[in-house]
Amino acid sequence: MKLSAQTKVLALLFSAGLFAGCSTTGENMDEGGYGSDVAPIDQDGGSTVYGGGDQDGISSSSMTESERMEAQQQAEQEALRDITTFYFDFDTSEIKPEARDVLVAHARFLSNNPGQKVRLEGHGDERGSKEYNLALGERRANAVQRFLIVNGASRGQMETVSYGEEKPAVMGSSESAWAQNRRVELVFQ
Amino acid sequence: MMRKVSFRSFQALFSAVALMFLVVTGAQAELLIRVTEGADSAIPISVVPFAENGNMPAGDKVSSIVQADLAMSGEFRPLSPQKMLSLPSKRADVYFRDWRLLGQRYVLVGELTRNGDRVEARYELFDVNREERILGETAAAPASNMRSLAHHISDKVYEAITGVEGAFSTKLAYVTLDRAGGNARYRLQVSDIDGKRARIRLESKEPILSPAWSPDGKKLAYVSFETGKPVIFVHELGSGKRKKVADFPGLNSAPAWSADGQSLLMTLSKDGNAEIYQMNLQSRKVTKLTNHWAIDTEATWDSSGEGVYFTSDRSGGPQIYYMAKPGAEPRRITFGSRYNARPRPDASGNYVYYVHQRDRAFTIARTNLKNDEETVLTRTGSDESPSVSPNGRMLIYATKQSGESVLTVISADGGAAYSLPASEGDVRDPAWGPIVR
User: Which of A109, B33, B248, B338 has minimal CB crowding within 10 Å?
Assistant: First the structure.
């Protein structure tokens, strides 16, 4: 699950749209709107990843356009997959719209890596009754599981468990603590 | 002291092999007791300090424990012994006129006699207005067990005056959570109803919840996460032996005993979502009692042992439902707000108690089953896990006080009585044990 340093460099470069600098064809450079110089990297705050002349890991000079698109998509997906906690409204198990792209990225990753296992841990906030919250946490984990299956993951890669209100992420009895505790966590194994 | 030492060495032994949980029988720091309010209608009673013949064991006096028991019920207002004009220990010395002047309705007198390793109590209860003895008894207990003797006397006094069986000799089960040092320690404990004589029955790094007493008071069923998921265990308190009774895929939770102790209601999600099942504890065979896409959980038998109350969100949010017999078409009981859960009927069949959302607060409410009238009993705001005393007169629930989870006991009509904070950490999930005969 941890991204390698190389992939991270790649991800940042691609997401900044600067991969064009590595291309050998002038056309693409023009389309990208950048010159062949590496200077824009610094201008975009990319200096921490631009370590010098030897660009280990980004020597994809012979990439085709479709390969680049694919690589960019992959990088974006990896960045999305850094998010592994999904939040819910009170007494609901509905997946929020903003969680969908991230969950799709996880589903694709699971689909591409059939050996990968993930544990879906459902939780609730402290309000209401414990046993009902235990069932609600399970329903949240099941909702995420179904979404992942529909998007390509297989059931055998996943197990679900609910902790109800027993394992809050944040202590306290505020709206903000409750909001952070109503969640499903993906734990990759 | 011996117990404490052996507990520590036991703990050291097991932590060395890094076990996930421990079954322990050691002593534990007791819950504190904080009597908050008495009801205005509380009955004035004088518990006169008992006379003593021979050496008495160290510790709280029997009459002090009786006085504290009656006070914490919320139904009595005991007179402080400093205000008494005399300290009689037998009828001949009771001057009713004095007690009337002090506004007392009842006077309890008695004496304790040491007899080898036992202590015998002879006690009498008088009705001040009628100048009559309404109770007289002798009872004995080992000298090491003065608290049991005192609770027994409290039960008899309570019954003689109210006509309702006392529940001072019953036990509480609950779960404490200690997060000291960054390591969560869940401890299933059993204590007297005043929080005294607490003993740890199970310790785990993972959550323990929903303890439920067997009708004979000899076993607890509960949910433990010690294997990484919710699993139901049945634990024999006498021997410390326990059995994993439900470990199906998904939830195994909310155990509730049948009156004959032969089966458990439980929530399982092995077929996809939370449904209520009945498990025969002999054959381990399970029968499905509900079948709905919604959450069905928190089942419990009604007072007759024929019908089942449970929580379901089939109407959109959690509400209380009732099946007249297992598997019958459920009927909705609660309508007063959008969140009502965790039903607990009393033994009389008159009331059902539950967690009730009122505006933004989670409170404990009850519905009178005869006229469907709903009464909100608490106002603390984050209340859960109600459990009714076996005589139906008191209710214990979990709530928050200055950020800590505590247990609070109230009279069943809502007059505040007392709270039981843990000496450190949180205490939750109370279950009031049965009257053991």
Answer: B338
